[in-house]
UniProtKB/TrEMBL annotation:
Keyword Plastid in annotation: no
Protein name stated in the entry: TetR family transcriptional regulator
The organism of origin for this protein: Furfurilactobacillus siliginis
GO MF annotation terms: DNA binding
PANTHER family: ACREF/ENVCD OPERON REPRESSOR-RELATED, ACREF_ENVCD OPERON REPRESSOR-RELATED
Assigned keywords, A-Z: DNA-binding
């Protein structure tokens, strides 16, 4: 059996991320990835069965990175608001630290057909702590009785816009601006 070269896998994964940023998900092709990674197209097929498998692998790696940071330092015994503020703050900081990866993750979230159904489901499973928090918030009548999609729409999406805008303008986000935005998100969903 052929030995898998971790450096080649990393180069391929980085090429995928670079191309998502430079050309958008719809223009990512195996030939462009191979060229950007400095490998042959045949090499890509040693590591991945097809483009979907490759994008699924990249997505799950990014999801693991983000969810690890998203739930860092979250005390599940603290109030729903404290937990959510911590998660949202972590989301902003992770997105600012990893803007390219955040772009890929959002592209997949906007168009799940880019990856396999199993990969997308696994990505959602990694975020199950959010579902637990959502159920607790509803049970304790802390947030409005709205769907999870609306909760995400009024919390993560405005913050994603704020981070993306700062990235495009090549400007830093002040902590006070982040705190204000998160407080506005909380106010939009609280009961």
């Amino acid at each position: 059996m052929r030995h898998k070269d971790e450096n080649k896998i990393k180069a391929i994964d980085e090429a995928v991320i670079d191309l998502f940023m430079a050309e958008g998900a719809q223009n990512v092709s195996i030939s462009k990835i191979a060229k950007r990674a400095g490998v042959s197209q045949a090499t890509i097929y040693i590591y991945y069965a097809d483009k979907e498998a490759m994008l699924s692998h990249v997505y799950l790696g990014i999801k693991e990175l983000f969810d690890g940071e998203l739930f860092a330092h979250v005390d599940t015994t603290s109030s729903v608001k404290v937990q959510l503020v911590t998660i949202l703050t972590n989301f902003v900081h992770a997105s600012l630290r990893h803007p390219r990866e955040a772009f890929v993750m959002q592209s997949v979230n906007d168009n799940p057909s880019l990856v396999s159904e199993d990969a997308f489901a696994a990505g959602l499973q990694q975020s199950k702590q959010l579902g637990v928090l959502y159920q607790r918030a509803l049970k304790e009548d802390i947030i409005r009785d709205i769907s999870p999609a609306l909760v995400v729409g009024f919390t993560f999406q405005p913050l994603r816009f704020l981070v993306t805008d700062a990235y495009r303008r090549e400007q830093q986000l002040a902590d006070a601006e982040v705190s204000t935005a998160i407080e506005m998100c909380w106010n939009a969903i609280k009961a």
